[in-house]
Design goal:
The structure is a homodimer. The first copy, chain A, has helices at about 20-25, 35-40, 60-70, 90-95, 110-120, 140-150, 170-180, 205-210; strands spanning about 1-10, 30-35, 50-55, 75-80, 100-105, 120, 130, 155-160, 185-190, 200-205, 220, 230, 235. By secondary structure, chain A is of the alpha/beta class. In chain A, a hairpin with a 2-residue loop joins strand 12 and strand 13 (about 235). The longest helix of chain A has 13 residues, at about 60-70. Chain A is elongated. At the A-B interface, helix 1, helix 4, helix 5, strand 6 and strand 7 of A face helix 1, helix 4, helix 5, strand 6 and strand 7 of B.
């Protein structure tokens, strides 16, 4: 049976991996993934062959992974966080038509919304939206619309890819849109380098977030109007009859 | 040091647990949780003392967990899925004021959005909203507003708690709201009993979903307007320049 397993490894450290993710990597013939993620997992499986590609080479990477699986190799395609949330699982399915004999299995992982929330307190106890600020594959106008609707709906919001070298002001632009609907006092937080060296987290207001620089290793959390600051944590209550 | 660890165990089976979650349960003196979840984990740790409470006793359960930690016991408070997403982490923080010496640690887990998506294919490759249809702690009007805004924003949508014995028609009501904005052909899916006995998944249209009964063990996925059916899977593309 020809098989590819798309594995979510969680935020980075071994403790954040599920047993199923570890088993899938242990049982494969070859680990395929983005260079940085292969660097994270290959020390755990030093005997495994690896195939790594750089950023923005996702299509090539997924096609090569499918090709390897089609040639009879047991492939584990490694993704950080969850393999389904902005991960490679979708692209593998989209490319799979050319490889009809390859069976696809998706092993989910802990996404940055969950691992970042755990560092910051409990910002996602109630309904929320997950929105990427990367406009590489999404028109900026659609990102703006999603931000406006999420704020209008009083959802907590998690921002993936809040900025990068080429998109330095995107988080500020997003905050300006959110500030049309939300108070500057809205409780927010940033989790950075989750589960890796230099891990940090910081709680602040939306007005402060607007003035803060982040990078591509950060995940940003915007509370809903009921989110509170408790000590140095951000906490969203479950609902109106609570505590 | 007085300590409580709020542990997300993932969907249910051992393979879906992270190493950190297993370590937190192994290192605790007492496992606290909802009866069904304690039944899931206690066979893995047969020597551990347990304290279980029933549904809707969340506040009592969290307060007792904090009390036990304050008395010097090492407590692992067990949640299904992620401990932060509709989990007990928020309530523990809210109640923690009365137990200032207790340190709180949150260990995240794989939430049903991720584990259900993995069963169905890759519905969450792009931005999405997570909305609970339970109106126990949320006014139904706010749930309706969130559904409308999420559909307006062309977000994929994950519905937690889509129905229960007392809320039999809630999913149908939600579908009617979504159908104001979304086509009846929108690709949808249901994942049930994820990682447990009787696990199932099924892909269908939004029009079909409206006529489908679910239960409290199901998670419902509504695609965005670009979500496709590929074989028996639902797949949301990453963006407009893809494949």
């Amino acid at each position: 049976m020809k098989k590819i397993t798309v594995v979510g490894i969680g935020p980075g450290e071994e403790g954040g991996m599920t047993l199923a993710a570890i088993a899938a990597m242990r049982e494969c013939d070859i680990l395929v993934g983005y260079t940085k993620y292969i660097e994270l997992v290959s020390p755990l499986f030093p005997e495994k062959e690896t195939f790594a590609t750089g950023m923005k080479q996702e299509t090539e990477r997924c096609r090569e992974a499918l090709r390897l699986a089609d040639s009879g190799r047991k492939v584990a395609l490694v993704c950080s966080g969850d393999s389904g949330i902005y991960g490679m699982a979708g692209l593998v399915y989209e490319l799979s038509g050319a490889f009809p004999e390859v069976e696809i299995k998706v092993v989910p992982g802990v996404t940055a919304a969950s691992s970042g929330a755990a560092l910051l307190g409990a910002p996602l106890t109630h309904d929320f939206a997950v929105i990427s600020l990367s406009d590489l594959l999404t028109p900026w106008e659609l990102i703006e619309k999603r931000l406006r609707c999420a704020a209008e709906a009083e959802l907590s919001i998690v921002l993936y890819n809040p900025s990068s070298k080429k998109r330095k002001d995107y988080l500020q632009r997003a905050c300006d849109i959110l500030l049309e609907k939300l108070s500057g006092d809205t409780v927010c937080g940033i989790a950075s380098r989750i589960g890796r060296e230099g891990e940090t987290s910081c709680v602040m207001t939306l007005a402060e977030l607007r003035e803060t620089e982040t990078d591509m290793f950060s995940t940003v959390f915007i509370g809903n109007p009921t989110t509170k600051r408790i000590g140095d944590r951000m906490v969203t209550p479950r609902g109106y009859r609570d505590v």
